[in-house]
């Protein structure tokens, strides 16, 4: 079977002055009149009735003053048997866990035993404050105070970002590159561009293969280590010549040492006991090669592709890695 194929070439659009981002953090919800209480854990879709993708779960755990860990013993472990992906803000002393809330919840280590938290009283609240205020819309975005300047860099989970952009000249198709983000949603002028999740990478072993023979789900894998989608189409019919509101809601805490989901899983499983730093890879399309690195800055560079400049925060040894490694048309 022969088929004509075409590979789309994505060209960065220079943005005069770059994007000026503002941020609003979605605080852990307060359980007010709109919350309700039930015994046991509820299934999310049934509880939210599909009006929101987000459901907050909250319960109380009383710690006896005689617990051994309070006197220098081993700290208790919270176990969540779930296929979920993230558990945010579990009390003041917990980090983010690579697990969801749906499923049995057990606290190990209390009085040298275990406590099943699944069938006690849980409080529930549907949705986010930003959803209720319609922060993605032109009218709702002005209802809160947005952080600006250096405060935007203080990234944390569940954060809304907004900026105003002008429509690029011409009539060619436009797309947003979300490859550096984690997981969330995008809007332009109140219209949903879609959900993104590039931090969830495809795993497996890619290489030469032969399609002949019996098929299996592990046969002829491609794009290993890549996101299922990186580019998100922006219809020009949704854009005004100037003053377009672009809003991004990011669920994960994207930062300079952002590990992959696989790294999170390895750390959560106990296979490693130290942070796994991600690696940056430069590559070209087939038949092309990297001849020169014109700009490199580990910090907060300003500008756009083709006209970057050093920002207020810059590591002066940013070029060292390129001097140590010979640039070739392969992953480095």
What do you see in this structure?
Keywords: Glycosidase, Hydrolase. Residues 274-324 form the SUEL-type lectin domain. It comes from Punica granatum (Pomegranate). This is SUEL-type lectin domain-containing protein. It is a single chain. By secondary structure, the chain is mostly beta strands. It folds into 2 domains: 8-26 and 143-266, Sandwich (Jelly Rolls), CATH 2.60.120; 36-127 and 280-321, no CATH class. Helices cover 7% and strands 19% of the residues. The protein has helices spanning 44-48, 129-132, 261-269, 320-324; strands at residues 22-25, 36-39, 55-58, 77-80, 105-108, 114-116, 121-126, 159-165, 174-177, 184-188, 191-196, 231-234, 244-250. The strands form 4 sheets. It has a 5-stranded antiparallel sheet, with no helix packed on it. Strands 2-7-3 form a 3-stranded antiparallel sheet. Strands 4-5-6 form a 3-stranded antiparallel sheet, with no helix packed on it. Strand 5 (105-108) and strand 6 (114-116) form a beta hairpin. The two termini are 36 Å apart. Residues 90-100 and 327-332 have low confidence and may be disordered.
List keywords for this structure.
BetaGal_gal-bd, glycosidase, disordered C terminus, SUEL-type lectin domain-containing protein, 13 strands, 4 helices, Glycoside_Hdrlase_35, Jelly Rolls, 332 residues, Lectin_gal-bd_dom, mainly beta, five-stranded antiparallel β-sheet
Report the count of strand segments: 13
Task: Give a quick account of the main beta sheet: strands, pairing sense, barrel closure.
Answer: 5 strands, antiparallel
Q: How many structural domains can be distinguished in the coordinates?
A: 2
Whole-number radius of gyration? 23 Å
Amino-to-carboxy terminus distance:
36 Å
Bin the helical content: under 10%
Would you identify the regions where 5 or more consecutive residues have pLDDT less than 50? Answer: 90-100, 327-332
Briefly note the structural class of the backbone. mainly beta
CATH architecture of the largest domain: Sandwich
The tally of helices reads 4
- Globally, the shape reads globular
| Residues in β-strands, percent | 15-25%
Lateral arrangement of strands in the main beta sheet: 1-8-13-10-11
What oligomeric state is this? single chain
Organism: Punica granatum
GO molecular function, one term: beta-galactosidase activity
InterPro entries: BetaGal_gal-bd, Galactose-bd-like_sf, Glycoside_Hdrlase_35, Lectin_gal-bd_dom
Keywords: Glycosidase, Hydrolase
């Amino acid at each position: 079977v022969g088929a004509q194929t075409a590979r789309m070439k994505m060209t960065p659009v220079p943005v005069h002055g770059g994007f000026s981002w503002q941020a609003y953090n979605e605080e852990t919800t307060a359980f007010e009149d709109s919350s309700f209480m039930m015994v046991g854990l509820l299934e999310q879709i049934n509880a939210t009735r599909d009006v929101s993708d987000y459901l907050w779960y909250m319960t109380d755990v009383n710690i006896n003053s005689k617990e051994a860990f309070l006197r220098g013993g081993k700290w208790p472990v919270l176990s969540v048997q779930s296929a979920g992906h993230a558990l945010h803000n579990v009390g003041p002393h917990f980090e983010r866990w690579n697990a969801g809330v749906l499923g049995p919840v057990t606290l190990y280590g209390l009085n040298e035993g275990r406590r099943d938290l699944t069938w006690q009283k849980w409080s529930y609240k549907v949705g986010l404050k930003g959803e209720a205020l319609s922060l993605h819309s032109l009218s709702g975005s002005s209802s809160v105070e947005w952080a600006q300047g250096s405060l935007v860099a203080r990234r944390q989970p569940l954060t809304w970002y907004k900026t105003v952009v002008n429509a690029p000249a011409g009539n060619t198709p436009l797309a947003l590159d979300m490859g550096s983000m984690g997981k969330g949603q995008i809007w332009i002028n109140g219209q949903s561009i879609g959900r993104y999740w590039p931090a969830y990478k495809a795993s497996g072993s890619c290489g030469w293969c032969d399609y002949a023979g019996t098929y299996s789900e592990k046969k002829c894998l491609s794009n290993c280590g890549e996101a299922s989608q990186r580019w998100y189409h922006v219809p020009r019919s949704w854009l005004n010549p100037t003053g377009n509101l672009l809003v991004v809601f990011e669920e994960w805490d994207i930062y300079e040492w952002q590990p992959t989901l696989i790294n999170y899983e390895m750390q959560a499983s106990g296979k490693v006991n130290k942070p796994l730093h991600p690696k940056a890879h430069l590559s070209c399309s087939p038949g092309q090669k990297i001849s020169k690195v014109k700009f490199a800055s580990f910090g907060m560079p300003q500008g756009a592709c083709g006209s970057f400049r050093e920002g207020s925060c810059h590591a002066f040894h940013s070029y060292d890695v390129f001097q140590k490694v010979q640039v070739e048309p392969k992953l480095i």
